[in-house]
Design brief:
binds nicotinamide-adenine-dinucleotide, Rossmann fold, 8 strands, binds SN-glycerol-3-phosphate, 340 residues, alpha/beta
């Protein structure tokens, strides 16, 4: 199904560019909003976004533009691929144009002051909009290079899910639907923190057993936290939970993993972030998550350990020692005891 209207993608970084290209390859006319006029002009001229997706040809159906109001007025379906730190600042001033729109956040972050997820911020800014999220194991470069990929669109609004599936589903990109917007979105935000830890472990030369332990204990920890917030633990067994956790904790293409790798090599957080030069949402999530876990009294030793290394001056050896010597725990917290 081809939408009558163009589709807007907000954000000129790697994921916005990858999503814009996918939509255009599916026959959609895409208005790709970015703040940088030079970047928009370069894409218009050269059909490439060299800073964020070097070497990827941008489809002729993608129209880069810097007039946000024009993009929003022309489109009903809007994908939002901005850094979490920019969301309010970009969309609050144009909130009057968002009423009735289908707003789909691809942002994997948490607002520090409020602990709101990005689709909750969209609700706050645009109470009359229809809201969804897109999340899953979706490294932008691999999406753009047509690696076979699956994602999840999540919303209480079934029609929104169907419209997103119709627009994005293609030869190399498969979109599953979920009604659990909160769980899907929370999984995407939480896994970034564990990818930093996995990158650190890789830099220290740790083995495959260690990687597997980290990913599995990360899943236990994030699920425990999510359940405390009222989320459905089963969602964490899907693409946007364990699926995204695996890819981000395993791939040097992940920016969060790269930050962790740099920390493991001995760089400071500031140096690691500067060397990356792109968004690694997990960096901001560490503090927010640590304090929320304490407030809710949820046991999150990996988050606490990472926080201790990055913000409390503890060494990797001290934290690893404390983690390995901690009292043994139960493997799986949420085993149903009836119904089998
Ligand atoms: N890159 C991926 O593989 C990937 C995959 C899925 C989801 N995401 C999520 O998508 C979101 C965006 O990430 P990305 O990878 O595209 O980031 P990126 O680092 O590749 O690019 C960020 C973009 O945002 C723009 N930007 C920054 N501040 C802005 C502002 N105030 N106003 C307007 N534009 C601004 C930058 O100019 C840049 O174009 C993040 O939350 C990320 O977690 C990324
Ligand atoms: O590069 P990262 O670490 O932001 O991860 C990208 C995506 O979230 C992977 O699904």
């Amino acid at each position: 199904m081809t939408d009558q209207h163009p589709i807007a993608v907000l954000g000129g970084g790697s994921f916005g560019t990858a999503i814009a290209n996918l939509l255009a390859e599916n026959g959609q006319h895409v208005l790709h909003w970015m703040r940088d006029p030079q970047q928009a002009e370069a894409i218009r001229q050269n059909r490439e976004n060299p800073r964020y997706l070097k070497g990827i040809k941008i489809h002729s159906g993608v129209e880069p533009l810097t007039d946000l109001a024009a993009a929003l007025k022309a489109c009903d379906l809007v994908f939002v691929a901005l850094p979490s730190s920019a969301l309010r600042q970009v969309l609050q001033p144009v909130s009057g144009l968002l009423s009735g729109k289908l707003l789909v956040s691809t942002i994997k972050g948490i607002e520090a002051k409020s602990f709101l997820l990005m689709s909750q911020i969209l609700e706050d800014i645009a109470p009359d909009a229809r809201i969804g999220v897109l999340s899953g194991p979706n490294l932008a470069r691999e999406v753009a290079e047509h690696a076979l990929t699956a994602s999840v669109v999540a919303s209480e609004d079934d029609d929104l899910c169907q419209q997103v599936q119709a627009a994005l589903h293609g030869r190399t990109f498969r979109v599953y639907a979920s009604a659990d917007r909160f769980g899907v979105e929370l999984g995407g935000a939480l896994k970034n923190v564990y990818a930093i830890i996995a990158g650190m472990a890789a830099a220290m030369g740790m083995g495959e057993n260690t990687k597997s332990m980290l990913i599995t204990r990360a899943l236990a920890e994030m699920t425990r936290f999510a359940v405390k917030l009222g989320a459905n633990p089963m969602t964490f067994l899907g693409l946007a939970g364990v699926g995204d956790l695996i890819v981000t904790c395993s791939s040097a293409k992940s920016r969060n993993y790269q930050v962790g790798f740099a920390l493991g090599e001995g760089l400071s957080l500031k140096e690691a972030v500067e060397r990356l030069g792109e968004v690694a949402e997990g960096v901001n999530t560490i503090k927010v998550l640590k304090s929320k876990a304490e407030e809710l009294d949820v046991y999150m030793p990996l988050v606490a350990g990472l926080h201790a290394i990055v913000f409390e001056g503890r060494t990797l050896d001290q934290v690893i020692g404390a983690l390995m010597n901690a009292e043994p725990k139960t493997d799986v917290d949420f085993i149903p005891t009836t119904g089998f």
